[in-house]
Amino acid sequence: MLKKLTRRVKTLITKPFKKPKKPPKPPTPAALPPPSPSPSPSPTMSPPPPQLPTKIHPFLFPNVQSTVLPDPSRFFSPNLLSSPLPTNSFFQNFTLKNGDQPEYIHPYLIKSADSSLSISYPSQFLNPSFIYQIFVPDLTVSAADKTGSAHVISSYSDLSVTLDFPSSNLRFFLVRGSPFLTCSVMGNTPISISTVHAILSFSSNSSLTKHTVRLNNGQTWLIYTSSSVSLNHDLSSIGSDGFSGIIRIAVLPGSDPMYESVLDQFSSCYPTSGEAVLTKPFCLEYKWEKKGWGDLLMLAHPLHLDILASDGCDVKVLEDFKYTSVDGELVGVVGDSWVLKPHQVSVTWHSIKGVNEESNAEIVTALAKDVEALDPSAITTTSSYFYGKLIARAARLALIAEEVGYVDVIPAIRKFLKDTIEPWLDGTFNGNGFLYESNWGGIVTRQGSADSGADFGFGVYNDHHYHIGYFLYGIAVLAKIDPAWGRRYKPQAYSLVADFMNLGRRSNSNYPRLRCFDLYKLHSWAGGLTEFADGRNQESTSEAVNAYYSAALVGLAYGDTHLVATGSTLTALEIQAAQTWWHVKEGDTIYGDEFTRENRVVGVLWANKRDSGLWFAPPDWRECRLGIQLLPILPISEVLFSDTEFTRELVNWTLPALERDGVGEGWKGFVYALESIYDKQSALEKIRNLQGHDDGNSLTNLLWWVHSRGDEHEIEHGGGGKYCWFSHYCH
């Protein structure tokens, strides 16, 4: 039986060692003595020493020394080790094990190994089940006749990472979206550029600053140097005498002479790093640091192009300059600052369109039963993921009760939420709990600190936004219905938010910047500190949306407009990324025809791969593939699945799978929920006949969802979607 645990807070009152005497009562005016020429202050009237303001330190969960995390000092420069470090980044493979698995840094796959760096312009392999890019070391750059230790990460930012090879005098500026690989060579070092292909021809311009290499795989590569250098070659390698300066390498993505002309034009300006700044709500600005001269050429993926602002930034889109990518065509953009404006979304506690009042009675009947069944002592799991889902499920009941006006059940829900949340925040939960580890900088669980497989890898920073997002939903709702409780646990709530949503870059922060969210791809990654040949991955976009949505609700509960704005903006970006890369519409062109014909949703999306299977289910379990992109069902789910025609395609694609033996009732519920968007009555009958529900869902929640599907046609307008009505009046 879980007992309600009340945290006792002792207040420490500091007092002087001796209590000063009270000053004498002032005499009446008639008895005042004549003023003394040099009055002496009474010792009892000495002013107390000034009190210095107390510095408030952010709350941290108890410290733990993890036994399962890798040592970050092998690849990060010593000056970076005192700061929290990224755990789900686009370059994470460069920090794990031998650091020699490739990473996809658009448009190239990059691999560091044996004191060298290899670049691949990958071809794609695709079939109905998956798509992946094939790494082949098209060119490998190293210092001639030198061997040394592994690379060192000397700096990193939102859009870049810098790899140093100290013993080889080489520094690589790996900036995402650059059509050039840029290398700085120091110390008059001889350079070697080798290939696994055969060199068919090699030529240099008259100034010896541009060199053209044709390979027998059909590729042509251009090598630009900041000063004249004479290169020699044989069948598979190119070499130089001593050189100091900048080398830039780019593949010609097509045979049209335009490609070479564009690369020539922009070869002299190179980026060294790039930052992404959330300047205001629903606005993200890219700013690149650059050197050289001329304008900066970068590449934009399809979502960039969809939300690239035409106002507020001086950029030029080169629509015909394109590279291929597993993420769709990458298009040239000229300019060192971009402004991106996703569609606006409204973060709300309750349904967007409201519940049909005639349906309240049915919802209330289910609500009373679901609340009556709430019992903390019946919870058997100690998993941070499944426990968080149960908390969020109960919190949904409270908000539905508010919406349908059945507030009598709220005290019982409040008690359940207190009894289940407080032990995790107080550190008194039996069997697990949140702790803080300082090597990488973040929250881990007690189980995860000793077992890398526990809590789905939470202890190695996998799925943090999923697990914490569920807890934050419950905390936000409890803080809303019990503000006193919210004030008491506000430090813990913000510590949980900061674990995956810290925006700061300060070295004294406790958490890295945006642990899971990728500010170039504009969605989150899971995976944590596990090496994968295809980079980071993410399965459930809806649970990622829930994380940022729940953080925004925490902001609403505490009146924190900055947190509301940040959470809402990341929610909007995550939704549009899901609709771009996970939702596969009929006739889409991002993925090949074979994959698009067979799939309506991606199972697991990797940096370098698209997989139709799930971590827990094969591709033909389509109900799971749909459900994992919808759960948990929330008001924001309406925005995620705002494309009614695609939703119909997805449900029709999924329904035949429900005829398979052994399909779980919980997964059926998610299919019917989406069906209700376009066929409410049919879905409602199916939901009423369900014999069970997902552990994070309930009959109450499904009925609320169906009965809040509006029948009216919403007004569409550019930029804001159909969920921010005031933007109708802002244009």
From TrEMBL:
Pfam families: Glyco_hydro81C, Glyco_hydro_81
Ranges of compositional bias, category Basic residues: 1-24
Catalytic activity: Hydrolysis of (1->3)-beta-D-glucosidic linkages in (1->3)-beta-D-glucans
Glycosyl hydrolase family 81 N-terminal domain ranges (all copies): 81-348
EC number: 3.2.1.39
The Glycosyl hydrolase family 81 C-terminal domain, residue ranges: 355-705
Residue stretches of biased makeup (Pro residues): 25-52
Keyword Hydrolase appears in the UniProt entry: yes
Source organism, top-level taxon: Eukaryota
Hydrolase among keywords: yes
Keywords: Carbohydrate metabolism, Cell wall biogenesis/degradation, Glycosidase, Hydrolase, Polysaccharide degradation
Stretch list, region Disordered: 1-56
Entry's family note: Belongs to the glycosyl hydrolase 81 family.
Protein name as catalogued: glucan endo-1,3-beta-D-glucosidase
Biological classification of the source: Eukaryota, Viridiplantae, Streptophyta, Embryophyta, Tracheophyta
